[in-house]
Amino acid sequence: GDFTVGTMTVGKGGAVSIANGSTFTINAEGAAVNAGKVTNNGELVIAEGVAFDNTTGEIADASTPSGSVIVAGVLTNHATVEEKAVDGKITAKALTVKANGKVDTDLTADYKVGETTLDVGSTFVTALNANAEGGDVSTAAPAKTLKLTTGFILAGGSITDRSGNAISDFVANGASGSLTVKVADQSYNSVRLLDGGKFTVNATGTKVADLTVTSGVATVGAEGALEVGKLTTGATNASVVVNGTLTASAQALGLKNNATDKTLEKDTSTTNGSGKVENGTLQVTQNGRLVVTGLDDLTFKTTGLSALTGLTANDRTGVIDLGKATIE
To answer: Cβ-count burial of 138 within 10 angstroms (0-12 exposed, 13-18 middle, 19+ buried)?
Structure first.
């Protein structure tokens, strides 16, 4: 059954078990410490006002995670001891950070949470853990991005570094790595998908300066609107599915205007910041809309848009909006 305690201290070697279907709530303001093991097959709730220290402990789960963690207070899973990072272990099917809640943890192999949801007013504090390409950090390739190998849902909360700066560069890596945006008017510097990673936009007003789908799927949901400053897709195992609205300039798609021939053509320049979208990787579905900006007052032949239409999949049923361009 459900159980509520004011505070809790689990010493080294100590253990607490939360059964499947049960809720264990810590609700007294102040410090609670786990230096042992909390086996959570149900639901662990850290109430508002509780400061839960798990830096030397473990929140465990079954081999197939089924437990969830709800954080309305503060869950600290990271510390620096003698200039070395120390992180506790968290394994769960889901972790939700509620309004005014905060989680502080590095995203290492010790953070095994299938899906992390950040509600409005919540904060997830961490550190950049990958270089600009999403690879390992080194002296020559310093940390520039946050690599996600599990699911993160941004439902109004923020992901920051330990200086309080919003993190704006993400890599979704692997089939379980995903970033989902569910709140309007969010802007990111870069999002990169590797090895089957996923990026989903289910809100309006989302902007990404540089979206790279090397391998994976970026999806604009039916209620979503995404504007990209530069779009790059891989030739295989990469797609951008547009069920809502995707807005990009011709240059962002890797195209340029040939005024003489009245055509759009592939831009092969590598120095002007142009995108590079491989043919067939844009899937504009029946209710989807691809808005190509920067073409107002330009004139194209009816046969001069093949470079643009070729970027879309053969089964495209949605709309390509060229603004005030003239087709003759």
So the answer is: exposed
Tokens for 47, please give them: 């109430």
CA separation for the pair 118, 167 (Å, rounded): 14
pTM for the full predicted model: 0.95
Contact 108, 126 (CB under 8 A): no
Nearest to 265 by CA among 274, 275, 255, 273: 255
Q: Quick one: tokens of 234?
A: 């891989």
Burial (CB count within 10 angstroms: exposed 0-12, middle 13-18, buried 19+), residue 273: exposed
Contact in structure between 141 and 131 (CB atoms under 8 Å): yes
CA distance 79 to 55: 6
3-state SS assignment for residue 326 = strand
CA dist., res. 52 & res. 71, Å (int): 9
The C-alpha atoms of residue 160 and residue 167 are separated, in whole angstroms, by 5
Please write the tens of the pLDDT for every residue from 28-60: 899 999 999 999 999 999 999 999 999 999 999
Tell me: pLDDT of 152 over 90: yes
Q: Which two tokens stand for residue 93?
A: 């099917």
Alpha helix stretches (DSSP H) within 258-311:
306-309
- Measured distance CA(19)–CA(143) in Å, rounded: 40
Higher pLDDT, 97 or 313: 97
Centroid of chain to Cα 137? 20
Residue with tokens 């891989």: 234
pLDDT in tens, 89-116: 999 999 999 999 999 999 999 999 999 9
Distance of CA 115 to the CA centre of its chain: 11
Q: How is 144-198 classified by DSSP, letter by letter? A: -BEEESSEEEEEB-EEE-TTSPBP-EEEEESTT-EEEE-SSS-EEEEEEEETTEE
